Amino acid sequence: MPDARIPQAGAAVAPKDIAKELFGPIAGNRWVQLIAGVIAMIVISNYQYAFTLFTPGLRQQFPGVAYAQIAGIFSMFILFETWPVPVAGYFVDRLGIRKLMIVGSIGILLGWLLGGTMAKSVFDLYIYYGAIAGTGAGIIYISTVANAVKWFPDRRGLAAGLTAAGFGGGAAITIMPIAATISSMGWAGAMASWGVGQGIVAFIMALILRHPPKGWTPLGWEQKAQKVTKAVAQSRVEYTWTQTVTRPEFYLLYAMFLFVCSGGLMTTGNLSQIAKSLNVFDAKIWGIAIVPFTATLTGVTNAFSRIMWGSISDRIGREYTMTVAFALEGVLIFLMTQITGQPMLFVILLPFVFLSWGEIYALFSAITGDIFGPKNASANYGILYTAKGMASILAGWGAALLAAHFAGSFTVPYYIAAVFDITAAILAFFALRPLVRGRIAREVPKTA
User: Fold this and answer.
1) How many structural domains comprise the chain?
2) Which of the pair, 59 or 1, is modelled with greater confidence?
């Protein structure tokens, strides 16, 4: 009788997952990698999405400082979250994700801890909140998004969407607790205590995360690849960052990212002031202040948008998805100018604005892996991600300055943002799709 433990002649041999053999059943499981990345993203989400909760306390703490300068803290954070990222992405691709994630976790911990305990001026917060925490958050962001792109070539939109959803949706879990902490401890105490907790969680996730082994593909990838590429154009060339920045489609993507990012960042960083300009700031919904209540709802839809649109893009293609989502965002952004004095419309409309905005962080990361290859995704998406830093200048300091010129009204900034969104939708359909598809159809496989 043949030994069942020994494969017999002609018997099918079960395929092996080299990632699990190398890293073990936990760290080698791509879904565990995805979950660890999502958790890391959740803890850095507050650095962006909870900033508006600190602004009332900051204005009281620094009464002689113009609001545009306080809004500059937000812009400084976004700049340092994005502009050093290409360098971080380069080292992530070459040194591995764990080392860079540890550096990032230390950065976010120190940024808020020092901001809450040592800051004596707005300039200090530019350093602590902006430069230190921003750099740490950027390292974590690019590490986890690029890792998802590498582990999920068959579901890039969904994986990037889920990871980015952690960043967009983490605030939905914590906005109300942070608001309560600010109420009981003040903005400084809340910033310090939350900074320590978030930094520790990110450090733990850093110990789990790994890049997939060289040559690894998910089981059954050969069959999946044919189905995926029918809707999603995937390059057969692995572009280095130096090659990527020579491509015209990169600059087209950069402009589109800048355009669409501006309106959502403006709303995120200035929500309290926007509520005041619309005469709804003092309203309460079921006894809850309207700004933290609405911010919680927008956190939910912001997270869901990344999953929803990312998954849709896996089925119909990135460019078609961008066209629909960006056009819808343009309409919704325009409607923000029409709801003055109507708190219920404020609560209803804002979540839909973020439902059509948050997907940019799934779509642009996924399409970067598609058209420039996954091997150097950290560095390539890191360069593209600096468009968010450019947008932060327009959305934070620039929008606040323009609003001040119009007696605190954000109507004109919203008009500009709506035009940006519609322009990006047109570019996705008429310029990006033919350019990318044409290039990929002509290329010859090679190793960069």
Assistant:
1) 1
2) 59
